C-alpha cells in the first residue's frame, strides 16, 4: 500500500526546498521500491491569498489522514502588517496543535567537512552531537494575547501534564544516547519555569533514575552552547526557548540550512527544516535544500524505513563532502556557490 505523504510547501523558500525534497523522496522510493503517494496542499501566506485563511479545512483534513506531513516554511514580509487579522504563522501553530505534535526534535550535528566554515574554533566543535527536545504546543506561543493602544500582553501557560509528557520524550531519547538531560528554563523569574523544573525533576527521579539531570537557566545555556557545546546530550526545553536556542545552535553546524526537525505526538508526524521562509533569498534559487532533505530522512526513519532514511542522510553527507555548498555555507567569495538545483542534483547522484 502506498505511503500517503502530504506536502505543504508554504511560502518564501518553502516551495523551493520542498521541490528538492520531493525529488529525493521519489528517487529513494524507486531505489527501495517504496510507493509514495505525495499530495501538495496550501498553508500560510499563499493559503491566505487563495482562500483567506492560513490553514484551509482541506489542508488540515488531508494532514490528519496522511501517514506523515512534510512542511517547507511559512510567512513573509508581505503578510506582516500588524493590523492584519490573519497571519501565516497562525496556520502553522494551529496545524501543530490540531495534529497534537507536542514534541519537536532537533538534532544538532557537526559535519566534519564544514568545521572550517564554523565561526567557532575547531577544538570547541570536537564531539558536538546533541538533540534539542522542544515543547511545541504550549507556552507563550499558545497563550492568550491582548493588545491595547498603550500596552500588550502574551500569556504563558504550562500544565503539569504538558511538562510530564515532553520530559518523558527527552528522557527516553537520552536513554538511547548518553543518559544526560539538560533542562532549560528561567526558574529564577518565571512561575511556569518553576513548575517546569519541579515536574522534570520528579519525572526523572521516579521514572528515569539512571539519567543524569541538570537544570540550566536559558541565558546561561545560550552562552554555554557557544563556549562548551560538546557538554550537551539532550536539551529539554519549552516552546520559545527551544525556538531561540536551536536557531543559535545551528551556527555550530554551519547554517540554518542544515538542520532538520521532527514534530511528534500521538498521531501523524510533521517534518520540517528548522529554518523559516528566508524572504531575503526567496525566488533566487540559492536556498540550501539540505535541512529540508534531512527532515525527509527523519520522516522516513519515523515511518520505519530505516534503509531509505540512512541512504538519504548518507547522500547529503556525500554532497557536502564533495563540496557542493550553497551560498550560506561558502566561506569565501572565491568558493563556487551551488544553486538549490545543483545541491539537489548532487544528493540525487549520491
Ligand atoms: P522563523 O520565524 O520562521 O523561524 P527566522 O526569522 O528564524 O524565521 P529564517 O527565515 O529562518 O528566519 O532566516 C534567517 C536567516 O537564515 C536569513 O538570512 C535566511 O536567508 C537564512 N536562511 C534560512 N534558511 C536558509 C536556507 N535553507 N538556505 C540559505 N539560507 C537560509
Ligand atoms: Mg527561526
From TrEMBL:
Q: Name one GO biological process term.
A: L-leucine biosynthetic process
Q: Which Pfam families match?
A: Iso_dh (PF00180)
User: Quick check: keyword Transit peptide in the entry?
Assistant: no
Question: What GO CC terms are in its UniProt record?
Answer: cytosol
Q: Which E.C. number(s) belong to this protein?
A: 1.1.1.85
Query: Which residues are recorded as binding NAD(+)?
Result: 76-89, 276-288
Q: For binding substrate, which residues are annotated in this chain's numbering?
A: 96, 106, 134, 219
Enzyme class, UniProt record, top EC level: oxidoreductase
User: Where is the site labelled Important for catalysis?
Assistant: 141, 186
Which residue intervals define the domain Isopropylmalate dehydrogenase-like in the entry?
A: 4-347
Cofactor requirements of the protein: Mn(2+); Mg(2+)
Q: Where in the cell is it found?
A: Cytoplasm
Q: How does the cofactor attach, per the note?
A: Binds 1 Mg(2+) or Mn(2+) ion per subunit.
GO-annotated molecular function: 3-isopropylmalate dehydrogenase activity; magnesium ion binding; NAD binding
Which residues bind Mg(2+) per the record?
219, 243, 247
Concerning its family, UniProt says: Belongs to the isocitrate and isopropylmalate dehydrogenases family. LeuB type 1 subfamily.
Provide the function of this protein. Answer: Catalyzes the oxidation of 3-carboxy-2-hydroxy-4-methylpentanoate (3-isopropylmalate) to 3-carboxy-4-methyl-2-oxopentanoate. The product decarboxylates to 4-methyl-2 oxopentanoate.
Entry protein name? 3-isopropylmalate dehydrogenase
To which species is this protein native? Aliikangiella marina
Q: Which gene name does the record give?
A: leuB
Amino acid at each position: 500500500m502506498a505511503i500517503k505523504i502530504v506536502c505543504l510547501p508554504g511560502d518564501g523558500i518553502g516551495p523551493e526546498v520542498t521541490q528538492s525534497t520531493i525529488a529525493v523522496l521519489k528517487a529513494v522510493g524507486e531505489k527501495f521500491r517504496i510507493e509514495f503517494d505525495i499530495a501538495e496542499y496550501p498553508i500560510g501566506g499563499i493559503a491566505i491569498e487563495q482562500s483567506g485563511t492560513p490553514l484551509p479545512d482541506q489542508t488540515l483534513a488531508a494532514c490528519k489522514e496522511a501517514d506523515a506531513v512534510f512542511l517547507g516554511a511559512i510567512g513573509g514580509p508581505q503578510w506582516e502588517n500588524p493590523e492584519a487579522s490573519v497571519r501565516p504563522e497562525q496556520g502553522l501553530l494551529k496545524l501543530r496543535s490540531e495534529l497534537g505534535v507536542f514534541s519537536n526534535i532537533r538534532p544538532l550535528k557537526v559535519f566534519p567537512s564544514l568545521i572550517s566554515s564554523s565561526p567557532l574554533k575547531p577544538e570547541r566543535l570536537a564531539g558536538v552531537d546533541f538533540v534539542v527536545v522542544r515543547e511545541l504546543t504550549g507556552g507563550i506561543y499558545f497563550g492568550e494575547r491582548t493588545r491595547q493602544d498603550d500596552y500588550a500582553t502574551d500569556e504563558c501557560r504550562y500544565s503539569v501534564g504538558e511538562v510530564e509528557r515532553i520530559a518523558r520524550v527527552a528522557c527516553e531519547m537520552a536513554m538511547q544516547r548518553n543518559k544526560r538531560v539538560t533542562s532549560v528554563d528561567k526558574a529564577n523569574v518565571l512561575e511556569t519555569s518553576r513548575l517546569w523544573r519541579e515536574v522534570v525533576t520528579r519525572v526523572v527521579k521516579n521514572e528515569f533514575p539512571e539519567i543524569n539531570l541538570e537544570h540550566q537557566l536559558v541565558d546561561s545555556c545560550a552562552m554555554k552552547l557557544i563556549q562548551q557545546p560538546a557538554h550537551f546530550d539532550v536539551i529539554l526545553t519549552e516552546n520559545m526557548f527551544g525556538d531561540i536556542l536551536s536557531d543559535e545552535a545551528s551556527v555550530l553546524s554551519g547554517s540554518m540550512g542544515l538542520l532538520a526537525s521532527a514534530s511528534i505526538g500521538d498521531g501523524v508526524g510533521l517534518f520540517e527544516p528548522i529554518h523559516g521562509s528566508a524572504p531575503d533569498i526567496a525566488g533566487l534559487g540559492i536556498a540550501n535544500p539540505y535541512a529540508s532533505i534531512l527532515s525527509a530522512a527523519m520522516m522516513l526513519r519515523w515511518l520505519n524505513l530505516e534503509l531509505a532514511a540512512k541512504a538519504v542522510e548518507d547522500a547529503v553527507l556525500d554532497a557536502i563532502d564533495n563540496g557542493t555548498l550553497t551560498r550560506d555555507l561558502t566561506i569565501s567569495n572565491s568558493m563556487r556557490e551551488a544553486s538549490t538545483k545543483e545541491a539537489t542534483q548532487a544528493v540525487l547522484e549520491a
